[in-house]
Recover the amino acids of this structure.
């Protein structure tokens, strides 16, 4: 008889997004993303961090201050990082699992690549204009968005 307590697809892929978020050097917000195709195969992962070749030690991680002295001018968001990490062509019909609802800039890339569904863990910036704009664009473009339904299951990494 097979096990009955195995992870479902949503649990598995959100778990991969959560694990990916732990690669982020951001001291305040760690975000991870996992993109899967219609056959439930992982196509790409990403986390929020500095672009390739830009040292994590040379650029600021501050949230406040002048724009060139804060992280916002430099950090690549997890969703965009995952899209850029994909080596294929179209992402038509793919699903994106993310630990934080995408901003408007990531929403543009998600829509342009043909991603059909966004599953998110947190929407803590729901009242921010960038999130409202993202939701408007997703609705217009027909991108389905749903909050991840947390279960009581836990997974433990055994090293």
């Amino acid at each position: 008889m097979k096990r009955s307590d195995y992870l479902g697809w949503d649990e598995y892929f959100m778990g991969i997004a959560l694990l990916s978020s732990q690669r982020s050097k951001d001291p305040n917000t760690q975000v991870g993303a996992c993109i899967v195709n219609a056959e439930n195969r992982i196509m790409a992962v990403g986390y929020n961090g500095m672009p390739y070749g830009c040292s994590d030690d040379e650029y600021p991680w501050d949230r406040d201050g002048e724009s060139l002295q804060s992280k916002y001018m430099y950090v690549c968001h997890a969703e965009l990082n995952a899209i850029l990490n994909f080596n294929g062509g179209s992402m038509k019909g793919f699903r994106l699992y993310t630990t934080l609802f995408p901003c408007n800039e990531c929403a543009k890339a998600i829509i342009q690549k043909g991603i059909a569904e966004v599953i998110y863990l947190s929407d803590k910036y729901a009242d921010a204009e960038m999130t409202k704009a993202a939701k408007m664009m997703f609705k217009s473009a027909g991108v389905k968005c749903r909050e991840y339904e947390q279960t009581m299951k836990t997974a433990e990494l055994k090293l």
Remarks:
- The two ends are 27 Å apart (CA to CA).
